[in-house]
Structure formats: C-alpha cells, structure tokens
Specification:
Elements lengths: L1 E9 L3 H19 L2 E6 L3 H8 L5 H8 L3 E6 L3 H4 L8 H11 L4 E7 L12 H4 L3 E7 L11 E2 L6 E2 L6 H17 L3 E6 L5 H13 L7 E6 H10 L6 E4 L1 H12 L9 E5 L5 E4 L16 H15 L2 H16 L16 H14 L1
Parallel strand pairs: 1-2, 1-3, 3-12, 5-10, 8-9, 8-10
Antiparallel strand pairs: 4-5, 4-11, 6-7, 11-12
Helix pairs in contact: 1-11, 1-13, 2-5, 7-8, 9-10, 11-12, 12-13
The protein binds 3-isopropylmalic acid and manganese (II) ion.
Catalytic activity: (2R,3S)-3-isopropylmalate + NAD(+) = 4-methyl-2-oxopentanoate + CO2 + NADH
GO molecular function, one term: 3-isopropylmalate dehydrogenase activity
Enzyme class: oxidoreductase
C-alpha cells in the first residue's frame, strides 16, 4: 500500500524544516520498504498571498483524502503587527483543526542527555523529566462565540465555551494515555474562578472511577505553571483545555533546552496532523539555520501514531539522539561550537537511518 502524505509546509521556516522531515521519511521508507506519496498544499500567510484564504478548500480536500498530514509552521509578522487584518494565517490553522476534528494535541515533553546543559533549569531538576501534555484543541476560548467588539469598538470579548461531551472525550484520552505510561494523570484547570473549569473538574470526578488504577490529581493552572519549572518530574500525563495547554507547553518546551526540539501530534476524527510546536520563526526564513528536529520528531510521531510503525519511529528518535551526541546541530543548540545548517542536519539524519 502507498501511504498518502499531505505536506503543508506553510510560512517562514516551514518549507525548510519540512524538507528535512521528508528526507528522513524517505530514508525510512527506503529502509523498511514502505511507499509514501507526498502532495503539497497551501496554508497560512502563503495561502493568503496566493489565493486569499489561509486554509483553502483544496487543501482541506487533500487533508481529508490523505493518511497523514505533515505540517510546518504558520504566521507572518505583517499580520502580527496589524490587529485590524481581517484574514489571518492563524485562522487557517484553527480551521484545519476544527474541520479535521483534531480535538487532541499530544505534546510530549522530555529531555535529551546531550542537551541537558542547555536547559535554563538545573540539571538535577530536568534530568529524567518525561511527561505528555494533552491539550484540548477544538474548543474553549479559541473557538467560543460570541467573540468580537462592541459597536463603539471600546469593548472586546472572547467566550470560553466547553460542552460536557468535549471535555469527557479528552479527559478519557488522558486516562488512557496515563494507563500506558506511569499511571498518573494531572487535570489542569482554574476551577476556583471559571465555570468551564468547574465542569472539567466535575467530569474528571465522574469518569475517574472507570480508571481505578490511575492516580488522578486536579491542579490550578497557575500552580501547574510553577510546578512545570520547579518539579517537572512530578508529571506523567497532563490534560488541559486549549489555551492553558498552549501556554503551558511553550513553557514546558524550554525544559529540553530548545523549543526547536518539541514535536506534536494532533489527533481526532479525521486525518491526524503532525507538526512542531514552534512557530514560523520568520527572522530565520530562507537562511538554512533553523532546527529541523521538532519536525523530524513529529514525523517519528506520524509513523507511530498514524501508521503504528514503532520501529520506524524509534529509529528516527535514535538518529536525532545520535546527531545531538555527535554535535551535528543547528545554531540554537550549538553552544558556541560549529553550527550545522538545517539541510546538513537533515542529510546527516537521513544518512544515519540508511546506514543503520
Ligand atoms: C500552537 C500555536 C497556535 C495556537 C497559533 C499559531 C494559533 O501557538 O500551535 O501552539 O495558539 O494554537
Ligand atoms: Mn502555541
């Protein structure tokens, strides 16, 4: 069978990093005898510039008809600095998440032995930290309505909305992942203030008895923000709502020493999407300096989560570990030593896999 991969490179460094992930995928498919067929489509600012829509219908069509989506990054400063822009690249990402039904975003947070010294946290705090943050991705304040401005423009509002059904499916997923790991689930909310959070907590308490072997705790998001950097090893699986998850995972990404190392998988109803958690890093676009590892590791998650190919995923992880060990790294983690280019890192990884 030929696996159909939709490639949505997007903006900024997106095309360069996705190119390296493709190299790595090609090395894997060659080695293991799989067949991949890639089809590219527009998304983000690039899509706005070319066709006036950040997530065109053809792109959606392609995603729906693919076995997995490999996604680069979106965003452009010309939109960030223009609050009045009517069409924004981010709307494309949100529409893709919503229309593909990607309600769960899995963001594994872990450390790499040879990078630990790059972490802003003390080695003894982060060495061995390993948790999975499950971020709800299609609800909450990102999508709640009403959203907008009063007629005189002097008041603005967003709405945080969650249905019991949306909460239950993501919390159950949290329990299931905890069951496959160290059997500890932290449900993060702000139940002392927010009505949606109180519903989250109520549903957590309702479903917890179905998972008697999982130790569950409830934690306020402000406390969680503190514990992530003071005691990250206490976490196993964390499940939380959309915006809390967005913020906490950026925070958690620094544990590994570079945001350029953290992958993610968005799963749900239709085709799953695999993308780095970092943004489009426009300052580096076209310079061949960006770290491709987060995207390469997202491809590893694609093999594991979309195709159940565990050996393939493991070999990609091994290649990344070995590249760090060998010092074949981009400038963000080069530590004053020789920095390799984005494409050199990609070539090295592909070659490692082919020779393995
Ligand atoms: C992410 C990003 C997006 C988000 C932006 C680009 C809309 O920060 O994937 O974490 O907030 O979800
Ligand atoms: Mn984010």
């Amino acid at each position: 069978m030929t696996y159909k991969i939709a490639v949505l490179a997007g903006d900024g460094i997106g095309p360069e990093i996705v190119e390296q992930a493709k190299k790595v995928c090609n090395a894997i498919t060659k080695k293991f005898g799989h067949k991949f067929e890639y089809t590219e489509a527009l998304v983000g600012a690039t899509a706005i510039d070319q066709v006036g829509d950040p997530y065109p219908a053809e792109t959606h069509e392609l995603c729906m008809n693919s076995d997995a989506v490999l996604f680069g990054a979106i965003g452009h400063p010309k939109f960030d600095n223009d609050p009045s822009a009517k069409v924004r690249p981010e709307q494309g990402l949100l529409k893709m998440r919503k229309t593909l039904g990607l309600y769960a975003n899995l963001r594994p947070v872990n450390t790499f032995k040879s990078l630990i010294h790059k972490s802003p946290l003390k080695t003894e705090l982060v060495d061995g930290a390993d948790f999975m943050c499950i971020r709800e991705l299609t609800g909450g304040i990102y999508f709640g309505r009403p959203q907008g401005r009063s007629e005189d423009g002097q008041t603005a509002y967003d709405s945080c909305v969650y249905t019991a059904e949306e909460i239950e499916r993501i919390i159950r997923l949290g329990f299931e992942y905890a069951g496959k790991r160290r059997k500890k689930l932290t449900i993060v909310d702000k139940a002392n203030v927010l009505a949606t959070s109180r519903l989250w907590r109520e549903i957590g308490q309702k479903v917890a008895p179905d998972y008697p072997d999982i130790e569950v705790e409830y934690m306020f998001v402000d406390n969680a923000a503190m514990q992530i950097i003071t005691w990250p090893k206490r976490f196993d699986v964390m499940v939380t709502e959309n915006m809390f998850g967005d913020i906490l995972t950026d925070e958690a990404s620094v544990i590994s020493g570079s945001m350029g190392m953290l992958p993610s998988a968005s799963i749900g109803v239709h085709t799953s999407v695999f993308e780095p958690i970092h943004g489009s890093y426009p300052q580096a676009a076209g310079k061949n300096i960006a770290n491709p590892c987060a995207t390469v590791l997202s491809a590893a998650m694609m093999f594991e989560y979309a195709f159940g190919m565990m050996k393939e995923g493991a070999l990609i992880r091994e290649a990344v570990d070995q590249s760090l060990e060998a010092g074949v790294v981009t400038e963000d983690i080069a530590d004053g030593k020789k920095a390799y280019s984005t494409s050199e890192v990609g070539d090295w990884l592909a070659e490692y896999i082919e020779k393995a």
